[in-house]
Amino acid sequence: MTDALHVPVLLAPILARAEGATRVVDGTLGHGGHAAAFLAAGAEVLGIDRDPDAIATARARLGDVRMHYVNAPYASPEAVAAVRAFRPDFLLLDLGVSSRQLDDESRGFTFRPGAPLDMRMGPDAPTAAEWLASVDEAELKQVLREYGDEPKAGRMAAEIVRRRETSALVTSDDLVNAIRASLGPRSGPGDFARIFQAVRIAVNEELTGLEEVLPLFREAVGPGGTLAVISYHSGEDRLVKGAFRLWSAGCTCPPGLPQCICGQVPLGRSVPRKAVIADDAETRANSRARSARLRFFRNSDASDQSPTRAG
């Protein structure tokens, strides 16, 4: 089944790792590209999305046979409770914005001329215009530096604050002009994309929710279950990689001890250890896959729970 609205990223390696899974959670349902493949493989699927439009579109496409829906942010108490009750053996988070959201100018995710500064993934957040109108300059600087990898974050934050004192930033043009004033005439689409992404992450509190929910979802997939995360931003990938590394750690006793006394055991392991990226054929067919990094963490089975010496 193909989806003209959203091409599922890294579908082949995801299906390979999900082989044999019977209860799958798609924590970022979007318009159902990955979920459709899970259903086709015979799994029962729980789809979660904070965007009511995404839920409606996915339901119209996927129906209700072996398919369940939750309209809420994946890190919300409602979604976490639904995941625990569902008892999945595979859970996927495909972070970032769907192709349909990007293509819908009224959603304000892109820097196309005249687009509104909205950027909300659902109705539960302020618009980007509202956030930019009220955010403290120091916080804005931090957001631009950490989420936008912007070396001139201080200058840009000051420029945005200066401009909003005389006229609110309400369209993509307003933010693009502030970026150009900060970075100079050589700034271009790559710079605009980074800054718009940084604002989007802040508006939707994406990294905060991700950090809180990862350990909860790891527990929810149970022994032998797998958690899969696709990230598109270096900050997201660092967070996921750090969590997976922490969970993979075994004994932390000093190397000179004859036997383990800490009792710490790995909760599982990353499989494979490095992130999976799209091949050339996929990136040519789907530009969104170019920045995607996919990581898997497989929980240990009960038989794996024995302390292992470090080093």
Write up what this structure looks like:
This protein is of the alpha/beta class. 43% of the residues lie in helices and 12% in strands. It is globular, with a radius of gyration of 21 Å. Helix 7 packs across helix 10 and helix 8 crosses helix 9 (172-183). The model has no long low-confidence stretch (mean pLDDT 91). It has two domains: 11-100 and 206-304, Rossmann fold, CATH 3.40.50; 126-203, Putative methyltransferase TM0872, insert domain (DNA polymerase, domain 1), CATH 1.10.150.170. The chain has a seven-stranded mixed sheet with strand order 3-2-1-4-5-7-6, with helices on both faces. It has helices spanning 11-17, 33-40, 52-62, 77-86, 99-103, 128-134, 137-148, 153-164, 172-183, 189-203, 206-220, 234-248, 280-285; strands spanning 23-26, 44-49, 67-71, 90-94, 226-231, 268-270, 293-299.
How much beta, percentage-wise?
5-15%
Query: If you compute it from the alpha carbons, what radius of gyration comes out, rounded to the nearest whole angstrom?
Result: 21 Å
Can you count the beta strands? Answer: 7
Distance between the termini: 48 Å
List the defining traits of the structure above.
43% helix; alpha/beta; 7 strands; 311 residues; DNA polymerase, domain 1; 13 helices; Rossmann fold
Topology:
Layout: H1 11-17, E1 23-26, H2 33-40, E2 44-49, H3 52-62, E3 67-71, H4 77-86, E4 90-94, H5 99-103, H6 128-134, H7 137-148, H8 153-164, H9 172-183, H10 189-203, H11 206-220, E5 226-231, H12 234-248, E6 268-270, H13 280-285, E7 293-299
Parallel strand pairs: 1-2, 1-4, 2-3, 4-5
Antiparallel strand pairs: 5-7, 6-7
Helix pairs in contact: 7-8, 7-10, 8-9, 11-12
